[in-house]
Amino acid sequence: MKRRPAFTVIGAGLVGALLARLLALRGLAVEVFEKRPDPRLDGFTGGRSINLALAERGLKALRTAGLAESALAQAVMMRGRMIHAGAGNAELHRYGVDDREVLWSLSRAALNRLLIDAAEAAGARFHFGQALVGVDFSRRRLRLADGRGIAREVEAGVWLGADGAGSALRAAMAEVTPLGEHIEPLDHGYKELTIAPRHPGPGGRDGERFALEPHALHIWPRGGYMCIALPNADGSFTVTLFLPLTGEGASFARLADPAAAEAFFAADFPDLLPLIPRFATDYAAHPVGRLATLRLAHWHLDDRAVLLGDAAHAIVPFHGQGMNCGFEDALLLSDLLADTAPATAFAEFQRLRQPQADAIARMALENYREMRDGVVDPHYLARRALGLR
Ligand code: FAD
């Protein structure tokens, strides 16, 4: 008879892959099922942001997983927010007094590959191109479908759902017991654009590859909307335009045509537009991403299944803490599961993490207002001058 694996992780995104690594390091048997193909072979097709800000909370989990150094080797340090208030003015607001308090900009694809490699090296087994499509909780079996839709059933151990905001495991759990799900969509969406790297001539310094200050998270606040840009290690920046989806003023609905969007950028982001050489192509090709806050009353189903990361608490990205928060989840859950029976571990996990997730969800929504207008608000600047944040 086939041995039943101890832990079955659904989703090999950032949180699922880190969790698999942490559990496998403790000698626990881990199987991971991921809907997408292997990003190490077929290229990364993750639909969310191209790069992300890694903060101390996430870094702590990576340190425990023995991966902080390899992650930081691929990252660009960001010392603070560089505010582009208009008329070509830019001012750096540091995150802390020195370089001990910084954020790190990382490629999502590179980080995901690193985590999968590390989890595999620790003994976790990955199955790519296998989407969870159904669960039979009483028989402890799950139904998986490959890229062609061909389904199969496998026996599974305890289920750990790291399959993101649209979690299939969450949907299956909700069929068995009400989870108290509440989804609050944001009326603003986002679109990503690219600032190309420069090509310094012979003898040119490394920093000259960047068209803007590399060690900053750039923000162009414009009241009802904004652009931000995070540096990439190759000298490029990923720009994210956050804009209302619809409405009377500037919105994605009104700026569906790339030529109209370019004219809007020329008027509102005149210093940024010349840095985006493929503006019209990027704008036409990249979809408008939707954002929402997900709150759940119940994160687990007795001793059988638990949700973590975006599957349990998706938040809007304005504090750059979604992944960081998910990494904290993975760290705590792996600690609890190493010593405690699943039902107790899951209940304790929710007890400790839910207040944290609720708090960051609230702060992320508040921070959108601060980023798009508060960062140039005179009250904000006065508070900063007094050392208050
Ligand atoms: P996901 O990254 O969504 O991964 C889920 C995985 O599950 C995917 O690989 C998916 O293919 C797989 N999957 C889905 N369905 C199934 C299925 N049925 N069967 C099997 N597998 C499945 N966070 C930060 O900390 N810092 C930032 O700077 C930051 N910036 C962001 C910018 C934007 C624009 C957005 C949208 C988000 C940002 N976030 C940031 C949040 C961050 O992206 C998420 O919190 C993080 O990706 C959550 O990781 P996860 O592994 O829980 O979910």
TrEMBL record:
Transmembrane segments: none annotated. Residues 9-173, 301-340 form the FAD-binding domain. Pfam families: FAD_binding_3. InterPro entries: FAD-bd, FAD/NAD-bd_sf. It catalyses: L-kynurenine + NADPH + O2 + H(+) = 3-hydroxy-L-kynurenine + NADP(+) + H2O. The keyword Protein biosynthesis does not apply. It comes from the Bacteria. GO terms for biological process: kynurenine metabolic process; pyridine nucleotide biosynthetic process. Keywords: FAD, Flavoprotein, Monooxygenase, NADP, Oxidoreductase, Pyridine nucleotide biosynthesis. GO terms for molecular function: FAD binding; kynurenine 3-monooxygenase activity. Its cofactor is FAD. PANTHER family: KYNURENINE 3-MONOOXYGENASE. This is Kynurenine 3-monooxygenase. It comes from Aerosticca soli.
